[in-house]
Amino acid sequence: MTTLRDDTVATPAKVGNEPVITLRGVEKYFPVREGVFQQVVGHVRAVDNVSFEIPRGQTVGLVGESGCGKTTLGRCIAGLTDATGGGIYFRLSVADRQFLDQVDAIPQEQRTQEQRDRVERLERAHRIDRLKGDAWRTYRRNCQFVFQDAFSSLNPRQLVKDIVGRPLKVYKEASGPGLTERVVGLLESVGLGRQHLYRYPHEFSGGQRQRISIARALALDPEFIVLDEPTSALDVSVQSQILNLLHELQQERGLTYLFITHDLGVVRLMSDDIVVMYLGEVMEHATSEELFASPRHPYTDALLAANPDLLSDGDEDTEMRGLEGTLPDPARPPRGCRFHTRCPVATPRCGWEVDDAVAWLLDNATVLDGLSGVERATDFDSVLRFGDEAAAGEAASLLESSDVPASMRTAMVELGTDGAQLRIRFEEVDAVRLEDVGGGHTTSCILHTSQSAGS
Amino acid sequence: MVDTAAPREPLTRTESGPLAVRLRRAGELTREVLRNPTTLMGLIVIVTLISLAFLAPLLTEPNRPDAYQMPRDWGATNAPPGTPGHLLGTTSTGGDVLYGVLWGARTSLRMSLIVVGVTMTVGTIMGSIAGFIGGKVDEFIMRIVDVLLAIPELIFALAIAAVLGPSFANIIFALSVVFWVKYARIIRGQIIHVKHNEYVDSARVIGDSKLNIYRKDVLPNSVTPVVVQATLDMGNIVLVGATLSFIGLAEAGLAEWGVLVSEGQAGISSGRWWASTFPGAMVFLWALAFNLLGDGLRDVLDPRTGGR
User: Fold this and answer.
1) CA torsion angle for A368, A370, A373, A376 (degrees, to 10)?
2) Burial, A368: exposed, middle or buried (Cβ in 10 Å; 0-12, 13-18, 19+)?
3) How distant is the Cα of B197 from the closest Cα of chain A, in angstroms?
4) Looking at chain A, which residue has its C-alpha nearest residue B218?
5) Best mutation target, A195, A196, A199, A237, to test chain B (most B CBs within 10 A)
6) Of A167, A192, A208, which is closest to B206 when you measure between CB atoms?
7) Which of B:13-42 have CB within 8 Å of A?
8) Is A241's CB within 8 Å of B7's CB?
9) Per-residue pLDDT at A366
10) Is B6 on the interface with A (CB under 8 A)?
11) Which sequence spans correspond to the domains of chain B?
């Protein structure tokens, strides 16, 4: 498996290629509905303000825990679901992207007519949710998807020939004996053969099924394939075969991959660039070597710590702590840095807020039966109402105790009781942004960037 | 490339074409269905009853001008079974019970095929529209279905047939109005389940049309419960239809099991059991046989037991 990585490293010619896919501030919010009339009471922010580029011929790894929005993002890019904000662009040149970024910085009313026209032209020609007719078909043919579960992604009632030949039929590229020969060619390119043409998917093993999926994705000779955890449902031995196959196909056909996975080991082998996502946001983005050699985000550290084989030699004395706690509710993501609730090195300026205090109380106190309501002025400043004075006092003393994480206690600038009410105010902080820390390596962690998350 | 060896039957499939594979699979399924002895029995009874229906014109002289009207032998009313020329006896109006039983099988087959054909088609179309399109269309269709399902099917069919007047055609119409809702509900549920499968997304990613996705991916993976329901309904419809004609909603003198049972019931108390018993037994056998086959099919085809 190590040869794989060497190959990837040994092709520097790819660097600097124009992107196949460009993401600009992509958002995907799912409405949360409640009650008889199904009113929208909030949004699950599955993907929030994600921007990066996928250069031609390269592999970008998208890493994160399950539930971080990586699959949702992959589905948006493949056009399976529409992004609710931002834009996903196909074949947008770097120059054009820079132009769009410049115009975005200008307030709407100050833009010249010329700028507006050019923006409109670019969006119509490149933004996937605005593509029509031939432009849409070109994108559709050139952007394919390989699903995690090769069993449910193959129609159980179709023969392999019909499954793999279907894209060719849709675009009327082949029919009759010609179609059969094209399908045989595709099957051979993924290590299957003519003898598999007339079988049903259930007659194959997991690895073979994934090969069939890959053959189908290759049928239209696409530029770009989203690989959504293509190996995580497979045995380890089969995993490496599929990874090798994907790598060979990339070399032969100059494919561009978005490789979605939770497995850093896999992504290291496959990827030129790695994007680390947490709770819908990008935490860190760097080249593969750079990310593994010098991770600049505690979340990346934590992911690496969960997989000690990946640590390079010099890191052994670095203190690495794994992930604790659970993923926060994506309908109410934490303020500041979204990772601060689970971050082992969180500072008082990472975005501590009332929800964190309430969550901590719920986890650690027994008296919380009396908590009857939270009146929030802002997320950082609110009044907790308790059943009686004693409960409020108890909660206050608990929050002042040394059991509370030090960074959270420091961030609490006001804590006082008034009868059965407890007022808590935290220092307000801004949202964190991705910042370049050199050589295209970006991170959102305030410890590694110049931003001080304070206001 | 270790995993390229097929897990089962590695050598037998190499030269098969698509038709041979499909036929072999149909054969495998049939064998599996018939492995259950009660299902096999149901199928044998069904084949026998349908053969009788087809052979009726050969086994008995068709009545003229309308073969579906009972012939009347006024010289031999209330003849017991075994009477020469009237093997199963006659009714109080001289109708030959054997003729009624055989031509009644034809009537029943015709009725159940028409009603199942119509209801399955209408129900599948309505359920597909509701399930595949969803949203307000779904709400609209399913509320109609809910209303219709709230009325017991026998009472509902009775009401429709009664309003339209006594005729066999009206019974068929009434049953068709009543029975489609079940199919709509079944197919809608299946489609909503199936359309979230990744193979539907796979078809969208290659850019296939909605109609093709429905035709190739959604419908074929949704129909098995409909097939089971149709088999069960082949029996139920004859049962309900016989009930309606028993009550008198079919034309008098029709060669139909319900009509015959009704004609013969007055004689039961005076010992003339045959005029009701034979057609009654036919209704029983018909409904039982299709239920046995339907249950057997369900066991084999049910998606929860293996995803065929």
Assistant:
1) -50
2) middle
3) 6
4) A155
5) A195
6) A167
7) 13-14, 16-18, 20-21, 25
8) no
9) 65
10) yes
11) 88-301
The whole model's pTM is what? 0.82
Overall average pLDDT of the A77-86 stretch? 90
Tokens linked to A347: 């500072």
Cα A340 to Cα A408: distance, rounded to the nearest angstrom: 10
Alpha helices in chain B (DSSP H): 18-34, 37-59, 97-128, 135-150, 153-164, 168-194, 198-205, 210-212, 224-247, 257-268, 274-301
A4-8, A35-39, A381-385, B102-106: which range is least confident on average?
A4-8
- The DSSP code for A83 is -
CATH number of this structure's domain B88-301, picked from the four choices 3.40.50.300, 3.40.30.10, 1.10.3720.10, 1.20.1050.40:
1.10.3720.10
Of A141, A198, A207, the CB nearest to B3: A207
Task: Give me the mean pLDDT over the A316-322 stretch.
Answer: 49
Q: Closest Cα partner for A272 from A252, A253, A297, A251? A: A251
Q: Distance of alpha carbon B17 from its chain centroid, rounded?
A: 34
Contacts of B194 in chain A (CB under 8 A): none
- For residue B27, give both structure tokens: 């054969």
B220 in A contact zone (CB under 8 Å) = yes
The pLDDT-based confidence of A451 (bands split at 50, 70, 90) is confident
| Cα-based distances in Å from B145 to B214, B224, B297 | 22, 21, 26
Cα(A201)–Cα(A190) distance, rounded to whole angstroms? 15
- Chain A contact set for B217 (CB, 8 A): 155
User: Per the structure block, which two tokens stand in for A397?
Assistant: 């003393």
Neighbours of B77 (CB within 10 A): 14
ipTM (interface pTM): 0.81
- Residues A20 and B85: their CA atoms lie apart, in Å, by 87
| pLDDT of A14 over the 70 cut | no
CA angle B5, B6, B8 (to 5 degrees): 135
Enumerate the residues of chain A whose CB falls inside 8 A of the CB of residue B215. none
pLDDT at A308: 65
Nearest CB to B221: which of A147, A156, A199?
A156
Going by pLDDT thresholds of 50, 70 and 90, the confidence category of residue B212 is: very high
Model confidence pLDDT, tens digit, residues A141-181: 999 999 988 888 999 889 999 999 999 999 988 888 889 99
* Residue A417: CB atoms within 10 Å: 18
pLDDT digits (tens, 9 = 90+) for B155-209: 999 899 889 988 999 999 999 999 999 999 999 999 999 998 899 999 999 989 9
User: Is B216 close to A155, i.e. CB distance below 8 A?
Assistant: yes
